[in-house]
């Protein structure tokens, strides 16, 4: 630790612009700081500071060494805090964001289990189908569906779902079934902006992506409303399989155009950075990873 103590003393001298001020920050005598910096220079075989009677300044070698020393000391501090954090039980407020319907159906129950396991954790669950900015909105971890753009976010894959086209049995008896995505122009359609923000529905035909422009009778930002209108016979709705799995199992909806379904979409937990990751975030993501059965084929 002598070498690290010497680095910390050198950083303190640079930050405080003097040995006496650095000693006060470190709560040691000025002579101790002087010896630590001198031993560091001797070990390196290079002068780090230019000393005068009135001020100190960095040499070129000192400037380069200061940058590296700051990182080394910061990394050590982070490692110590992480080790201490792992020993402590998760506590504080955990802010979680998720899509409205998926959050209500799947994230909220998982968060409830987490809070029961860790009684010192409070939770702030924010449900919205818009993509929130984790840093600006103060979100610790978000559950997102779909492919994410390249970013600095850390991603943990938790499952997958797929987009499906569904309609009620009554609507299909009345209007017939589409055989190909190009047939959609003859049917009433229901659009949920949370899946496709535009009027283009995407499929795969003969191994190639196919985009079909629809003119929906109902456009909504609510997955519940879109699925509910489809159950009532309003037309063909584009939904995610987790949203309609129960309705299909109960016979309230029927999937059509399944041979043209695009590849599944990932369900992921994302958080801003692995550096200084709190144990409450780490514990929650680990719980999701171990217990969430989010495979919706």
List its traits:
alpha/beta; Arc Repressor Mutant, subunit A; 41% helix; 25% strand; D-Maltodextrin-Binding Protein, domain 2; 9 helices; 6-stranded mixed beta sheet; 297 residues; elongated; 3 domains
Verbal overview:
This protein has 297 residues and is of the alpha/beta class. It has three domains: 2-87, Arc Repressor Mutant, subunit A, CATH 1.10.10.10; 92-160 and 265-295, Periplasmic binding protein-like II (D-Maltodextrin-Binding Protein, domain 2); 163-260, D-Maltodextrin-Binding Protein, domain 2. The chain contains nine helices and 15 strands. α1 (2-16) crosses α3 (30-44) and α1 packs across α4. The longest helix has 28 residues, at 60-87. It is elongated. 31% of the residues are buried.
In whole angstroms, how far apart are the ends?
55 Å
CATH architecture of the largest domain: 3-Layer(aba) Sandwich
Topology pattern, helix = H, strand = E: HHHEEHEHEEEEHEEEEHEHEEHE
What about the largest sheet?
Answer: 6 strands, mixed
Number of domains in the coordinates?
Answer: 3
What spatial form do the alpha-carbon principal axes imply? elongated
Count of helix runs: 9
Enter the CATH topology name of the largest domain. Answer: D-Maltodextrin-Binding Protein, domain 2
| Structure class | alpha/beta
Unreliable segments (pLDDT under 50, ≥5 consecutive)?
Answer: none
Helix content: 40-55%
């Amino acid at each position: 630790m002598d070498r690290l103590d010497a680095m910390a003393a050198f950083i303190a001298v640079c930050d405080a612009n003097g040995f006496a001020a650095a000693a006060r920050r470190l709560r040691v005598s000025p002579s101790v700081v002087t010896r630590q910096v001198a031993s560091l220079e001797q070990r390196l075989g290079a002068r780090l500071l230019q000393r005068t009677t009135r001020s100190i300044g960095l040499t070129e070698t000192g400037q380069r060494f200061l940058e590296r020393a700051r990182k080394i000391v910061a990394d050590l501090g982070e490692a110590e805090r992480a080790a201490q954090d792992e020993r402590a039980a998760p506590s504080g407020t955990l802010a979680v964001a998720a899509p409205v319907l998926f959050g209500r159906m799947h994230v909220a129950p998982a968060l409830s289990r987490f809070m029961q396991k860790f009684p010192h954790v409070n939770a702030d669950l924010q449900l919205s189908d818009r993509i929130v900015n984790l840093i600006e909105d103060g979100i610790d971890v978000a559950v997102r569906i779909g492919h994410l753009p390249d970013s600095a976010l850390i991603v943990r894959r938790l499952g997958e779902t797929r987009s499906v086209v569904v309609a009620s049995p009554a609507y299909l008896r009345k209007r017939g079934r589409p055989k190909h995505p190009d047939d959609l122009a003859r049917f009433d359609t229901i659009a949920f902006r949370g899946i496709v923000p535009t009027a283009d529905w995407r499929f795969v035909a003969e191994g190639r992506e196919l985009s079909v422009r629809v003119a929906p009778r109902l456009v909504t930002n609510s997955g519940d409303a879109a699925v509910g209108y489809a159950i009532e016979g309003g037309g063909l709705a584009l939904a995610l399989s987790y949203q309609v799995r129960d309705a299909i199992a109960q016979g309230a909806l029927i999937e059509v155009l399944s041979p043209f379904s695009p590849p599944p979409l990932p369900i992921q937990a994302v958080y801003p950075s692995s550096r200084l990751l709190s144990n409450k975030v780490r514990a929650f993501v680990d719980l999701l990873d171990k217990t969430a059965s989010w495979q919706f084929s």
